[in-house]
Design brief:
Strand order of the largest sheet of chain B: 6-7-8-3-9-10
Number of strands of chain B: 10
Number of strands of chain A: 2
Helix content of chain B: 25-40%
Radius of gyration of chain A: 21 Å
Order of helices and strands of chain B: EEEHEEHEHHHEHEHEEHHH
Low-confidence stretches of chain A: none
Oligomer: heterodimer
Largest interface: A-B, 24 and 34 residues
Radius of gyration of chain B: 19 Å
Number of helices of chain A: 12
Strand content of chain A: under 5%
Helix content of chain A: over 70%
Strand order of the largest sheet of chain A: 1-2
Shape of chain B: globular
Distance between the termini of chain B: 33 Å
Order of helices and strands of chain A: HHHHEHHHHHEHHH
Structural class of chain B: alpha/beta
Mean pLDDT of chain A: 91
Mean pLDDT of chain B: 90
Strand content of chain B: 15-25%
Number of helices of chain B: 10
Shape of chain A: globular
Amino acid sequence: MFTTILGLGATALELGLISSLTVLALFLSYSMLNVCDLSTDGCFTLGAAVGAVVAISGHPYLSIVVALGVGMVSGCITALLQTKMGIDSLLSGIIVNTGLYSVNIAIMGGASLLNMNKTETVFTKAKTLLSGTFMSSQYRLVVVILFVVLALVLLTWFLKTRLGLAIRATGNNPDMVRSSSINPAFTTIVGLCVANAFTGLSGCLLAQAQKSVNIDIGTGMVTIALASLLIGNTFAGKGRNVPLRLAGAVLGAVIFRLVYMVALRFHMPAFMLKLVSSVIVIIAIAGPYLKSQFPVLRRRLVHRGGKEAR
Amino acid sequence: MLSIRHISKTFYPGTANAKTALDDLSLEVARGDFISIIGANGAGKSTLFNAICGTFLTDSGAILLDGQDITLLPEHKRAFHIGRLFQDPLRGTAPGMTIEENLALAAGHGGWISTVSKADKKLFREKLSLLGMDLENRMRQPVGLLSGGQRQALTLMMATIDPPKLLLLDEHTAALDPSAAEKVLELTKRIVAQQHLTCLMITHNMASALALGNRTVMMDRGRILFDVSGQERRDLTVPDLLERFRASSGRALDNDRMLLGTDE
């Protein structure tokens, strides 16, 4: 019994950490740039599909690099649509997302499912590498932790550079960015490229960890990641401490998966995942708004009852 | 220094709402000029600033800054040489970022992937201490916590940390309470004098328009009504200004805010 729980915990941790890379991507686009990037679902699948195809062709390490690269290209297209072609930011995400569906199937050779049971991936490489050491049973977790730590270090540093500061200011006050002689279109493009590189990586790792890609692997990812991000916000706050907020985003992703795993143990059907993530996002965003509206609402109700004290 | 040659701008051309905001306007600004600009609401004062900054492109005419034709340059590229403050103290700073981060962006030192250096931090501290608002000890606090006056003073510091060729002040003290407005105006005078900046300032206060700077320009309906400097300006009083407006435009000045500002 105890080992089952421990095993489930490890799986939840692993899945949480893999999706935390997407959460970090949304942290960059949603929290920093103030752009809701709806191409996330398609980009996640793109990373997974490309990563799988490259790994199947015998290049497990290259698959990571290529997944990062295609994510970046996808982000760049989304950003160009909204900064240079006058397409609304939400719409450009949706358009890219839709287009990516065909692209992804084409990459997977017309199939909607690829199997990697006998494929060498970064995880099987790690398994061979770690065999005999005390970490051998948790080789997948080791790989994922490595990637997440690298991503955290990189992002913490990046957001402190001049470029990173400019990206943060773009979501905060684009007028001020312009008056600092920086083109906000440029910072939006760079920000979305970096963010989507992380999304692509996240998809690639999930595909390789579960040894298969399905065309639906990324469906709902943007909501799940947003839910994780908002859960993370309740821990780390929305303050100016960027490293803390980044860590909060990762923590949020892990907590989301843990809670989901517990709910599964209590016989919640697996297909409920997406509804749960939707509800979390609704509560997290609508909650503070409704709370601020409550005093007015209460006065109205009292007024309608004709009992308002004068 | 700044040469504005026959610029025009019509908003919503060809519609019933067509409005000519700038009408064949020309203005020569010499290096070191400090010009106060006055005029009724809708005279085109802010539109003139927008044209200089590149918020929009003018329909015709040319704008030259220090010999360089900037007529078609995008806004962020002009910002290398032009600093601007708005009436709204919230417009010039990023509230979610710290004072230090705001200054680092404004200073723009180093390459894209460089972080704030120790030398920069020292420079920021020194510059902030000149404001006399104790901001040098609050460098790691978000700008959103500052008062309007403090934010406007910080914006002024950010706009002038690398001395711009041209400083545009668009009623930058109008939204502040009287004591903060006085303080920011005092800082403005000091910084402009120290860095020998060329400066255009829109104001609704006619008395301070005459007291500050070396030239006063009155605008009306997208044109320059009159432009005074030297001895002629020194002899001018606020009632004279009103009289000259009536004489030039053929109607009385009906801007309450400006009239109320006369007895300050």
